[in-house]
Design brief:
five-stranded parallel β-sheet; single chain
Length: 159
């Protein structure tokens, strides 16, 4: 009990002596209280990496892309969604397990580039003709990730 009181008194004393900047900073850092113009940012280049064949992961990956584009505080220059392993199944025509073709087309209309790992496609028995329109095939997903990172793309692993 005495230790808790000491910590409380020490914290209060520190706030009095040092001011309450941490409290006021915390209040103004809340996104709802910020003007997006107050946080200038350079245009970003980002790659979202998807490797899961799970439809919920596909949904999450596309939602992350949409959310990034919709975030006015982050100007986006280039956005690439790169799928390898079973993630390339996202790029196949609609089925009961894959209803994402319209979302992909909508993101493509907003400038998003979709790329599929050629090694994964071969492993899954897919050809370029099996992919949705506009999806680019790259030789290897890991090679493309390395190439994009060398070009200063930020990397985000999506579900």
């Amino acid at each position: 009990m005495q230790r808790r009181n000491f910590v409380s008194v020490t914290g209060t004393l520190g706030a009095i002596l040092l001011g309450s900047e941490s409290v006021s900073a915390r209040n103004t850092d809340h996104p709802a209280q910020q003007n997006s113009c107050a946080r200038p940012a350079p245009k970003t280049k980002t790659v979202l990496h998807l490797s899961s064949g799970d439809s919920m992961a596909h949904k999450g990956a596309l939602m992350n892309g949409k959310n990034l584009l919709d975030d006015e505080s982050v100007p986006v220059k280039d956005l690439v969604v790169l799928a390898n392993s079973k993630g390339v199944q996202l790029y196949t025509p609609p089925t009961d397990d894959n209803e994402f073709a319209d979302q992909i087309a909508s993101l493509q209309d907003r400038g998003v580039t979709f790329r599929a790992c050629g090694n994964a496609m071969e492993m899954l028995g897919l050809t370029k003709d099996d992919l949705l329109s506009g999806v680019e095939q790259v030789p290897s997903g890991v090679g493309e990730l390395a190439r994009l990172q060398a070009l200063d793309f930020g990397y985000i692993k999506v579900p």
